[in-house]
Amino acid sequence: MILPYPLILASASPRRRELLEHAGFVFSVVAPPLHEPAPPEGPPITAAPWAEALAYFKARSVARHHPEAIIIGADTVVTHQNRIIGKARDEAEARHILSTMFAGPSRIITGLAVTCPVLDKRIITHEITSLVMRPMAEPELDDYIAGGAWRDKAGAYALQEGGDRFLQSLTGSESNVIGLPLEKLQQILSLFAA
After folding, report:
1. For the segment 97-110, what is each residue's pLDDT rounded down to a tens digit?
2. 48: domain range?
């Protein structure tokens, strides 16, 4: 795919960067100058609009300084048991989140925003993946927490950092669980292609 302008990932996430690299994209990374607020309290119905809004704000904040580029913004939230689960603040909160994630399915929702100011074009959408985790035995949970894979992850869960051994089932995009729905992103970028 040939894009008419340089591609920029508006994210400090190493996982998103790795996904784009493995997919063969040539891009640069510009971390958005945006402090990410905590997700809203309330029902999960607000999760997709919240993720889309954050993705767009990230993309827009970078696009202001790079108007002749195609900017990708993304933000991932997790919903479980009728509530939005954010990032754990510490080990105790990670343990609590992970302990509750075993009871029934979770939904991973990534907001995706692609914008190009010079083309006056933006597309904002989201992707949802459902997953069910098997219960961790106490020693497994201890090891997972001690390993730190929960840090800076919505739902305190990292599929790509050893969390896959606790996965019972996954429906939808696997790359979405890692933080960037590549299939959907490729469809969107084709609309920007020359």
Report:
1. 888 877 778 899 99
2. 7-190
